[in-house]
Amino acid sequence: MPALPEWAPSLTASAVALLVVDLVVRLTAIAVVPVNRRPSSALAWLLTIFFIPYVGVIAFLVIGNPKLPRARRRKQREINQLILDSTRGMDLVSTEHPWPPWLAGIVELNRNLGSMPLVGGNSAQLCGDYDETIRAMARSVDAATHHVHVEFYLMTLDPTSEPFFEALRSAARRGVRVRVLIDHLGAIRYPGYRRTVRFLEDCGIEWHPMLPVQLHKLKYQRPDLRNHRKLLVVDGDVAWVGSQNVIDRSYDRRGNVRRGLQWQDLMVRLEGPVVSGVDAIFITDWYSETDELLEAERPEVSPEGSPGRLECQVVPSGPGFEGENNLKLFNALFYSAQRRISITSPYFVPDESMLNAITTAAERGVEVELFVSEHGDQALVHYAECSYYEELLRAGVRIHRYPAPYVLHAKHLTVDEEVGVIGSSNMDMRSFLLDLELTLMVCGRSFADDLRRVEDDYRRRCTELTLEQWLARSRTHVIKENLARLTSALQ
Predict the structure, then answer these.
(1) What is d(CA 322, CA 308) in angstroms, rounded to the nearest whole number?
(2) For residue range 6-42, what is the model confidence (pLDDT) as tens digits?
(3) Which of 8, 252, 302, 391 is the most buried (most CB within 10 A)?
(4) Which of 131, 137, 128, 209 is nearest to 168 (CA)?
């Protein structure tokens, strides 16, 4: 029998060591991964680690923690308490109000989760024309006399957004205090980021990146925890919230221009006491990024002398909170609906609880419809979304697909005749778990009717998807859906 080579014992020892390490990694993953994580997400992570252990472990270490750093969560709790203290007694929850009987409980849910009260005396005006929205926000800034608070996931100076940036420069020149927050990784990935920053600095506008990943400054958290909010507050009198970023409708990317993609968004202009609630969100994020608490501009809710009749409630959400505030609000509304639900979401990748809430509503006789894009701008998310269509269609949900080359990026829903919701939150696990979002619930027939008219316009433009059509899709498409759905659970 030939003698073993000199290197054989060493190779055998290395193989044994690798096997031991592999076993330890797998056992540790079983003990660590499921802690405080939903079962679908835990299973997806475990499969990843088991099938590609070293890559899976590295990925889990980088993006496996869905919470913001402890210091930021502490600041969020401080602001929540500040809001609770300054708005105590302002709630409009009353059994004598002519609301649907189920609404008071949802208002209380939002108050407990996000600290914001429901306040009355507000007006709300929708704007769905992309370029006109930017010009209208610029006109709001032009009227500023004291301060302008700007917070967008993405802001880029280009020919479309130039009127808004020029309004900011003009406001700063006449002595208005202009503060700007831009998501760091959200904006830096798009052309024109440096040009935009240079413009703000040349104008003397104070700006800060949100959730920066700057290792040279020792600033780091899970890189895909992003601030996805879109808001503008002028003098505490006017606010804008919704889905639209401040950038050209093509998002300034060559691939989008080549495909002719155009984003379709919806914003709402607000007046009344709810503006203070929107400003409180900016104050929270400004404090988180700068350690400066804008005490002189704390939210003060006073419906006296207000311009409208709508009741509004701001619902912040994100990894700074203990729960998934937006998901809980959506699910509560779906279970409460008695007659009709209309959902508009560009990235619809629900978790099990939302899928059950929607299909249950359809199965108990509620008319449920979903507006989505025919062709998504993000292939992985689009295929994950498609993986839910069959179950929705079988439950009786009507699916309307907005035609290319438009990307239906608006995010809103209506429930029955009196409740509308609009904001920055998608209905996907990223928005529920990883992104800081702003959602606005509006109670009032006039606003719900306005949103219904927007939905009616979508319906005229859309093509309805039938179950028969969907079942005829290719096997390749089904495989892509299944793979994308699995990766979507890695949260």
Answers:
(1) 34
(2) 555 565 766 677 777 767 777 776 776 676 666 667 7
(3) 252
(4) 137
